[in-house]
Hints:
heterodimer; A: alpha/beta; Rossmann fold; 6-stranded mixed β-sheet; 10 strands; 35% helix; globular; B: alpha+beta; 2 domains; two-stranded antiparallel sheet; 12 strands; 53% helix
Amino acid sequence: xxxxxxxxKKEGGRRVKDGEEGPVIRMEQVSKVYHLGEVEVPALRGVxxxxxxxxxxxxxxxxxxxxxxxxxxxxxxxxPTSGELYIDGARISELSDSSLARLRGGKIGFxxxxxxxxxxVTALQNVELPMMILDVGRSERRERARxxxxxxxxxxxxxxxxxxxxxxxxxxxxxxxxxANNPTFILADEPTGNLDSVSGxxxxxxxxxxxxxxxxxxxxxxxxxxxxxxxxxxxxKDGLLEGAT
Amino acid sequence: xxxxxxxxxxxSNLSNRGLRSWLTVLGIAIGIAAVVAILSIGAGMEANLxxxxxxxxxxxxxxxxxYSGSSQQGFRFGGGxxxxxxxxxxxxxxxxxxxxxxxxxxxxxxxxxxxVIYVDERITASVTGVNPQIWRYTTxxxxxxxxxLSPGDTFVVVVGxxxxxxxxxxxxxxxxxxxxxxxxxxxVGILKPSTTSSxxxxxxxxxxxxxxxxxxxxxxxxxxxxxxxxxxxxxxRVSEELEKRILITHHVTSDKKDFTVNSMQATAARxxxxxxxxxxxLGAIAAVSLLVGGIGIANTMYMSVLERTRQIGILKALxxxxxxxxxxxxxxxxxxxxxxxxxxxxxxxxxxxxIPRLGVSVMGMGGGSMTTVITPKLIVxxxxxxxxxxxxxxxxxxxxxxDLQPVEALRYE
Lengths: 245, 413
């Protein structure tokens, strides 16, 4: 596989405020409470977590542990009920909905269990989409999308529709899409959950390579094999982290 | 997201729903086609009407005995279809009207229906006795052959086009003789077909000759008085002044009015009014189908939001703001409206160009096919309107899509 880090370097690295190597993600006493009618269901109960640049971390836990909520909060798809979340130094609670959308687009690369590709457009256009959303010019985004697809080994599949690709290939397109805007970190949700073991293995290899090249990666999973790929595992139980840093 | 990218994405979304998008577009197209066709027919009718009305002469005011809005009983002479109400317009009135400011000619006329015999054929026709000196100035009819009546004429007639060419088995030509009452009249002029058709069946003769065969009209009385105004006169103001004068000569107040002052200008305005409100009414009916088309768009967009909830979630996860999602959907619905408008306007133009060939006659106004007028303004307005209908229909679904929480949207199966 050709180097993915090379891509990042060309686009310029992460901004570091005041020259200090602060954590990429910092959660301070984050809690999330859902209201089901009259009943209050706490999903996160004061979570502290700090992830530094270049880390590869797995968040593991059985269903009902608050793992999915954790993913949604980390992905800025939902806001904490209380507590603070900083991403790349930016305080989430201070951001408007549209600023938060832009932050998702620019700093977080999502990889979903069910791929979530747009079924009606080609692999290449799927990879271009995040750049299109962030107003990257046509020729620039096309060229960059090609290079990333090349890097994940799908250079010869760029004009295929998702339905014409295997599960493993689709997930590689999804990873390429996640890398499109050179995000601060990659957030993967059960990335091998819908794949056979061989394809799953290959996807995990890609994550490993990306991490070796300096990319920060957060994987949320219930699968121990997947979790073991990461250099650090944090476990969740009843809305709290066990053995957190 | 840039506007051109939004546009591209919208177009790709629409084309992916191929048949359904087209069916929705068809709904709008039919509505716009109906509106365009009806408005073009309306515009055609109006153009037709005003060209016909110009033949009436809008600078002519006619005064007739009797007033439909009054309880005053007009004294009726003579029977027959002519319904000559006479007895209250006299030479005194005529003389009294002449000095009114803005009046150029005043012409008392004597008219009625009479049996007319040409060789061995007998018909009943309207005979009008005019002032031979000024009739040629008060009439809008043009000569096809011969001459107008002139001072010193006695038992001569000028006949309308139909009288000359259609009424009798053998066409009337100059120099032929007609028998009206117990007098013989010589044809000295034949009129061209008129735009109003009212002159086509008429026979004009000098007033004095007419009196000889229309004994029911008193010696100093008229069946009508025709007033032609000066070119710079305000016709409606002149009409008012004429009315005031006759009220004085008749010694009546306006609530006991026994005559009617009617200017062609007022008639024209009234007819145009009726025509316009008819067009608006029909257009409103057509607009209902446009409304139905709009609801079709709303429905399609609503379904599409439901179907694509997950995609909206992905778009949002990838950084699309609520406003951009909203814009995406508005562009989509607006595009459906616009495409429907383009199809509909073309279809409407096609229909309206076919209508004149069907040869439907207009409101019995002397035959003549219905014409239609399509202006660039009508086309442009209908396109803008269809796009607005599309976008307006898309507002609610677009808002719904924009307000979706990314978490909810991504969870949606």
